[in-house]
Design brief:
Elements: E1 6-10, H1 16-31, H2 37-46, H3 49-57, E2 62-67, E3 70-79, E4 89-96, H4 105-119, E5 125-130, H5 134-142, E6 146-155, E7 158-167
Parallel strand pairs: 4-5
Antiparallel strand pairs: 1-2, 2-3, 3-4, 5-7, 6-7
């Protein structure tokens, strides 16, 4: 008999504090040394428990990865922000606390978001990742994402390259 201790479920109001913690841990792990320090600290400070409470009150599309009763990560998703085209769905953020990375749990979050987008009849999927975040880029490539576009994200005068990965 197999017991799956990790499940993907919709985020609820009680998850706000855990989401803030997961966000902080994941962003420090992913972006320290990539995003300028003060910008990173400001971004983390803005995304505390109150911010997540407001997001969840608006019924935003957020799934959490519940690992044995702990929120190990999250994914946010919805209609693609670049408008018309073959990619109608978009994953805006997918993050796991560093403790839970490398175990295949990110794939569970990705699949959960992709399933919801399919249910909403939003075919084709787009995800943006900073090019210097090699772990994220490798993750999306491993899942079959094809790099289709590039852009930049600016942080206090520092311009960082980002890549769009797509699935049909």
């Amino acid at each position: 008999m197999s017991v799956d201790v990790a499940q993907v479920r919709p985020a609820g109001p009680k998850d706000a504090n855990a989401l803030a913690t997961a966000y902080e841990e994941a962003w420090r792990g992913a972006y320290q040394g990539i995003i300028p320090h003060l910008d990173l600290e400001r971004m983390i400070a803005r995304r505390g428990q109150g911010w997540w409470e407001r997001v969840l009150q608006r019924r935003a599309s957020v799934l959490v990865l519940d690992f044995g009763g702990q929120v190990a990560g999250y994914v946010t998703f919805g209609r693609c922000r670049i408008g018309r085209g073959p990619y109608r769905g978009e994953i805006f953020e997918l993050y796991l606390s560093p403790t839970y990375q490398g175990l295949g749990l990110g794939t569970k979050l990705f699949d959960g978001a992709r399933q919801k987008l399919h249910e909403w009849r939003l075919p084709g999927l787009l995800v943006w990742a900073l090019a210097d975040n090699e772990a994220a880029c490798d993750f999306y490539l491993t899942l079959g994402g094809k790099p289709i576009a590039e852009g930049t994200e600016d942080f206090s005068g520092t311009s960082l390259r980002k890549i769009a990965f797509a699935w049909r």
